[in-house]
Amino acid sequence: MLQTILNSFSVQDIRKKLLFTAAILALYRLGAYIPSPGVDAGTIKDIEENFTGSNVLGFLNLFSGGSLSRLSLFALGIMPYITASIILQLLTVVVPSLERLQKEGEVGQQKITQYTRYLTVGLAFAQSIGYVFLFQSFQDQAGTSVVGDLTFNKVFLIVITLTAGCTLLMWMGELITQRGIGNGISLMIFASIVAGLPGGLQAWWTNPDPVFVVMMPFVALGVIVAIVFVQEGQRRIPVQYAKRVVGRRMTSGGSTYLPLRVNMAGVIPVIFAASIMAFPPTIGQLLNTPAALDFAAFFSPNSWAYVVGEVFFIIIFTYFYTAVTFNPVDQADNLKKYGGFIPGVRPGRPTAEYLDRILSRLTFPGALYLGAVAALPTILISQTSANFFFGGTSILIVVGVALDTVKQLEAQLMMRNYEGFLK
Question: Does the reported pTM lie above 0.85?
Answer without folding.
Answer: no
